[in-house]
Amino acid sequence: MLLRELAHQIEDEFVSVIEFLSEATRRCDGTEARVILASVQDRLESHVCLHHALQMPQFVTTIDLASYLQQLCRSISRSRLEYEGIALSLLLQPLKINSERCWLLGMIVFELITASARRISFEGTGAIRLEVWGTASSVTCCVVDNGTTDEGGPRLDRSIVDMLVARLNGTMDICFGPDGARTVIEIPHRS
């Protein structure tokens, strides 16, 4: 309940800043300044959508993982990747999954995609691909990027992802190579 209240307060703060920018844009005389303020407002609105997509579900129910991940990835792209020239492609099999497990997997996907974006940003423009498929017993999530793997480049902070994967009773395999990174998460379909 405390996390939900905190998330609600953060969203209210975002809305307040967006309203302020909207008013400043209306009062602005210069066309260039108006365009810049509108761009900042649009990016903040994208962050609000991302923040909303990452919130813990209020009720335990069954939802479609592919639909959830499409919404989440659209928010990630609009809030960060598009501005950095990074393309995100999706190959998602429709799967019905418990809403809490879906949310936890969404948090993992968010962490993996943002880590990929940091590696790509270090190098320049690039691409990230998310694939999700399932069987009767498991769900597999694969994130592939063409980012740098140099020691000087940013790496995934595994502590959060390891904790989330463990909570889902899953496994994680990360391979770094000359063409980028590939991370495969496998979780039981039900715990």
Low-confidence runs of at least 5 consecutive residues = none
* Molecular shape: globular
The end-to-end span amounts to 24 Å
Mean pLDDT across all amino acids = 81
Neighbour order of strands in the largest sheet: 2-4-5-7-6
What would the CATH topology of the largest domain be? Answer: Heat Shock Protein 90
Report the β-strand fraction as a percent range: 15-25%
Number of domains: 2
Overall strand count: 7
CATH architecture of the largest domain: 2-Layer Sandwich
Give a short synopsis of this structure.
The protein is an alpha+beta fold. The protein has helices at residues 2-27, 31-53, 65-81, 99-123, 158-167, and strands at residues 62-64, 86-92, 96-98, 126-134, 138-145, 171-177, 180-188. The strands form 2 sheets. A 5-stranded mixed β-sheet has the order 2-4-5-7-6, covered by helices on one side. Strands 1-3 form a two-stranded antiparallel sheet.
Describe the 3D structure.
This protein is α+β, with helices and mostly antiparallel strands and 191 residues long. It folds into 2 domains: 1-55; 60-188, Histidine kinase-like ATPase, C-terminal domain (Heat Shock Protein 90). It has 5 helices and 7 strands. A 5-stranded mixed sheet has the order 2-4-5-7-6, with helices on one face. The protein has a two-stranded antiparallel ribbon with strand order 1-3. Strand 4 and strand 5 (138-145) form a beta hairpin. Helix 4 (99-123) packs antiparallel against helix 5 (158-167).
